[in-house]
Amino acid sequence: MENNLHWTLDVEFGEDRSRKRNGNVAENFNIVLKTALVMLTKETSLKKSKKNKRLKAALDSKYRDKIFQS
């Protein structure tokens, strides 16, 4: 049974499709993804899905800075 965190990481970031398996790569990348998920969740000025927030952060450096500050 999947918990909510794993489901979110899988749906939002495609974690189960990831091919990262060598050494500590998978574990390290998982930490990065969880950190990004927390940052996207804490940023509340934009009322969009996490997927749309990720896209906006990729395209808009001011919004990306806002996410890093929250």
Short description:
The chain starts with a helix and ends with a helix. It has helices spanning 4-13, 25-42, 50-59, 61-69.
Summarize the SSE layout with pairings.
Layout: H1 4-13, H2 25-42, H3 50-59, H4 61-69
Helix pairs in contact: 3-4
How would you sum up this structure, described in words?
There is one protein chain. The radius of gyration is 13 Å and the shape is globular. It has 70 residues and is mostly helical. The protein is built from four helices and no strands. α3 (50-59) crosses α4. Helix content is 67%, strand content 0%. The protein has one domain.
Rounded Rg: 13 Å
Order of helices and strands: HHHH
**Which outline best applies?**
globular
Which percent bin holds the helix content?
55-70%
- pLDDT under 50 segments (min length 5)? none
Structural domain tally: 1
Q: How far is the N terminus from the C terminus?
A: 32 Å
Average pLDDT confidence is: 86
**Beta-strand content estimate:** under 5%
Number of strand segments: 0
Output the number of helix runs. 4
Largest sheet: none
Structural class of the secondary structure composition? mainly alpha
